[in-house]
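Q: What would this complex look like in 3D?
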Amino acid sequence: MKLSFSPKLSTFLKPSSVTNLHRSFCSSSISSPPPTSLKPQTPLFLKPPIHSAASSDLQKWHDWAKSLASSVGSTFVDLDNGPDSTLLCREIKWLMEDAIEEESEGMENNQRSIRLRVALEELYMLWKQRVEERRPFQYVVGCEHWRDLVLCVQEGVLIPRPETELIVDLVGDVVLGNEGLREGLWADLGTGSGAIAIGIGRILGTGGRVIATDLSPAAFEVAGFNVQRYGLQDVVELRQGSWLEPLKDMEGKLAGLVSNPPYIPSDDISGLQAEVGRHEPKVALDGGINGMDDLLHICKGAASMLKPGGFFAFETNGEKQCKHLVEYMENDAGGSFCNLKIVPDFAGINRFVTGFHK
Amino acid sequence: MSSFMFRKRASSGSWVVLCQNPEAKTQFVPYLLFSTLSEPQPTTLNKPSKPQNLSNSIENKRILDSGSSSFSLKTSKTLLGSVHNHTFSRNIFVSGSKPLALSSASGKNITGSHCSPLSSISFGSQRRGIWHLSTENRVLASGCGVLVLPMVKSLYSSRGGLAPCSLGCLFGTQAAMEPSTCDGLTVDRIIASEWLILDEDESDWKSHAAAIAQSIHLIKKRLQWKKLMIRLDLLSAEVNKPDLWNDPVHAGKISREHGSLMGKMKEVKAFERELLEHIDMVKLAREENDGELESESMNALLKMRITSKEKETEALLAGEQDPCSCYIEVQSGAGGTESNDWAAMVMQMYKVWAQQRGYKISVVDEMPGEIAGIKRATIKVDGEYAFGYAKAEVGVHRLVRISPFDSSKRRHTSFAAVAVTPINEDASAHVQINESDLRIERFRSGGPGGQHANTTDSAVRIVHVPTGITATSQNERSQHMNKASAMAVLQSRLDQLEMARQTQMNAQYSQSLTDITWGSQIRSYVLHPYRMVKDLRTNYEVSDPDSVLEGDLDGFIMSYLSASLDKDEDDR
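A: Here is my prediction, written as structure tokens for the whole assembly.
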């Protein structure tokens, strides 16, 4: 009986530069360790394959992990809309993808040893954390696949959501026929892992730049790591600080402004899915009483930051916040915005507000 | 030594006989060399020409016929000259190439006086001219220009003028279409002769020739030769339309298909001519008692015989889409866990089969069953001819066994349906998809989403609203990648739909294999009470189900492909 996980490790996305970047990052961090303890953790898939296990032992782990996943059934779904067994089983597959060094061609005998990026014991521990502590899978493996990127994430940094991918598409649509925007200066406020900033940095023209801000030191470090991994140091500039504060010198200069600020109403935080409520940073989720504290704060500043014709896109909690935001921009923002639009995500929830500065 | 060459002058459409060697002493037969550099043209130049004696006029012994004319068969009947006193000569330089033996086979068959199958061709009133080429020898030729026959010319055009010349081929009933040897032997006649086919190591030219001729026959049948010709005519007409390129996409499609059909037909025709040439050579060598030439030609025939077997297999995969990569989709039938388990076994069978064939596989979409197996799964199979082979698997697969999921150990019958979709790499051949026709949705979602939810599930379903066709991807780790993967599946499904629509339009060219529906039951896998896998289409069967389920499918695939292409004699 073959290991059922053996086929298809190569679908795993690896930008060709990744390994090299990683190496240079690692070696530089070894020679001159960063001053703080905020050094980003190396995600599983970038760890060196210095461990090994017999394939039969790995098979044992796999069977154990699967039975643990199956025992969950729909318990988490019923509890807080968490993952079901099917999803957890797929995560096992991905965990193996990240943990096992890609096998060379040619099947050897069943007793062959498999090279691993973590010790087998740790693999047991990681999966236990995933199921029993509801630790988010992305923290377990230290990365999140987002668009065509693999972004490193860790505790203290919000895991970028699939919905947020669309912000990059929205920006892509507006820069397509607009050189001013394509070659302009953009800002991503509360960048977290750097996802949006990197996504946008890769679709702008050669003259385009992105400034990404974040208050959290952990996010600042992790975003820096991700920017480096994609070789965008010259395109994406990171500035530590709250929202627009680090951008005082950019007033009236921005071609675009995007953000996915915390938007969950404070009252909802306690009832969040365990993966989110127990593990992700509250500071990246809690948007105040009605969830709109930060959105409104950013909107207020947007008019002064954007140059004429500049574009903005913000993610919200849904229909209610979208409407509220549009209303605010039409009435209270002194008519400085036009072409306001509400854009739904793929689940059909009105998720984004976009528009232009007059 | 002497030799004669007919030379056609493009301007007049006339043929002349050239005597290369004025010192020709005794007997000779005209060696008619047509070295054409162009394809047959449809123009008919049917005017009588003046016989001209151009003896000695050509120094370099190169004969270039750059013109062409297809005379009607009626005219060609008047051609025959009577040639007395034949001999064979060798070492004539053709088109500046190395010396080659030239043959028009045994002279008797082209001489009017004693040709048997050709004797119906009349002389007399239509005879155009008799040329005196030397004092001692006369060549009678009549009906100038008739020697221009498409196959003779293409013979040279395809072989760069190096081939030995066979001109006796002018007189068969299908002379204008079918190549033949100097004595009128065609592939069909070889088959009709029912020569005994011996082992390959038996040095018998007739046996080799018969084997090769049968292969050619089979290849033509597999290529659906007649339909191919009809289609080619249609395409040629289309290609010649002056306004073709007003629609560049359509024009591209048409000219690509035209080119590919031409290529296929040319290859077979060239192979056919090669066979006939070698037969001529063998005969010539025998007459000349040239042992070296004979063994050379015999070896060439043997080589052809071996190649022809490869070509037979190739011809099984001659469909336009056959070289493509493909998606294989397996869906479990009704019946719960046992059925889901069967679907997973079928999918596993294809995974192993594809791996053994050296194809790269990736899972696009997989919907597991509650307890075991899969409800549905799609894999992408990357590699040459993946579709060509896998298309033979389309249909419903049936399993009979004692179900391991049934505690009372009863016998169960379950079904799994297989669909195969080619992936057309040529983006210009893709059906255009309007973004506005698409509805993209999260496959499974609930709750407020966004920051509220942490999920690794980013499955995407894309619905093409006008056709209702959907594609799902859930095995990628990001929504963006799932969307791209689902888009690719959707594209190939729409391409296939369009293909089916066009195929229906060209009903006379339709292939049953392009039928993409899930189809009817094609194969039965019985594990209990006896053990057997049987294909219901071909009756091909294997008594070891395990080997089949471990991916040993080629026997089934090849037998189906040949059966589906070889069945209909009229389709040739």
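A: To summarize the key features: Chain B has three domains: 1-184, 197-274+295-316, 322-447+455-506+513-572. Chain B is about 35% helix and 15% strand.
Q: Very helpful, thank you.
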